[in-house]
Request: fold
Amino acid sequence: MTKQTRRDFLKRLSHMAGSAAALSILPSCNSVGQTGKTDRPNIIYIMSDDHASHAMSCYGSKINKTPNLDRIANGGMRFTNSFCTNSICAPCRAVVLTGKYSHINGKIDNSRKAFDGEQQTFPKLLQKAGYQTAMIGKWHLRSDPTGFDYWNVLPGQGSYYNPVMIEMGENKKYTGYVTDIITDHALKWLKGRDPNKPFCLMYHHKAPHRNWQPGPKYLTMYDDVTMPEPDNLFDDYTNRGRAAKEQDMTIAKTMNDSDLKLTAPRNLTPEQKKLWDAAYNPKNEAFKKANIQGKELVRWKYQRYIKDYLRCIASVDDNVGRVLDYLDESGLAKNTIIAYTSDQGFYLGDHGWFDKRFMYEESLRMPLVVRYPKEIKPGSVSDDIVLNLDFAATFLDYAGVPVPDDIQGESMRAVLRGKTPKSWRTSMYYHYYEYPAVHSVKRHYGVRTQRYKLIHFYNDIDEWELYDLKKDPREMKNVLNDPAYANIVTELTAELKRLRKKYKDTTGTPV
Ligand code: CA
Reply:
């Protein structure tokens, strides 16, 4: 409706009796309108895989710099207590999409059945509300993506080099490095989309997932430095139970030759292989000649692991920078919510480990920085407990779409505005299922508050652990049987029971 016809329409209406009822048929001025342009914000949800917050400079990393990820933090809010509800790849993704716990959305672990794509997800609801939706990069849910106008995803874990991607059901092979290629696709989609519709882009990196293959640009980065070791690299798990002792995810014993780059990837082009060999062969020859053993060998493995992990992150940071630059150049930055997170945290030699799964801090915590100039104060920090469960409700809220009652997460919008509601959660519920399986982390559920964490490893063993995170942030001592904490144990047990009821979790041994 043009301005003139709208005026004529209003004029005619003013002559009509009972015009209040007639007014309700007027097209709303602030919804889509004739041009389709709206004030509804665009959403770019960036998720990497296994990127721990202690490998981001805005979180005080002692081992690397992430200038582009820090741009998001500096322009918006950084969360210090952002957690996942089940610390493993595919289940985390299902929680993000549905806003529901694993026992409700059905994707409880990586290995069993595929994600049921028939169910409600937030991209589907946004799509229905007129958003243009896209999913580009790592998907890992086995079923095809649903709720997206465009999708282009890696099959399963995908390859770091020369990956195949599945574009709307069609397999295509690319030459190059996966982090660059995923970004190329994301930028291509952003530039080619319908500019008259708001959009939601899920831009998901494979990096820095195991086995941490760096891109050609960063193969020798950090060669001239020695990374500081975590203080508990040689943790012997005294003062803790069988779960920590019986896992299979140590740098010392679990890492293989391909993780440690003692063998080269098999799918490199001759040019890529030349660069790879030039970077690794001299270091590997020196290592073999030195014939180191015991703690020195673990130290060497840690250095090799952490440097490759951080090299992968350097490419993620560069590529996120390309997207941020495009948003600035195109003027989209002003009306675009941009979030950077990872599907969960990771052990960077902490407790002698790599991998995730446990409810302990390093893998429970997700990095989360969110920028939206219209509502979020630059450089702000929140200590509130937020979850991957909350993304669906948050994005629907920003888009003006009613949040369905069956979504279990909460909108973080007020928290992001710096106005946390008094009723905001003060505890979170966690449940991990993948056992028996790779890495041998026993099934457990638990509750975490700002200060304490109670965990129940309920199958195979029946053991409880309590940590006082204020006195023991590294979780080196289970204080469950310390009489000084008897009241805390009682309180947290009741809270755990309450949360299991609230979220309708009847899986696992009752509390
Ligand atoms: Ca992951």
User: Anything to note?
Assistant: Residues 123 and 279 are 42 Å apart (CA to CA). Residues 216-227+237-304 form one domain. The two ends are 61 Å apart (CA to CA).
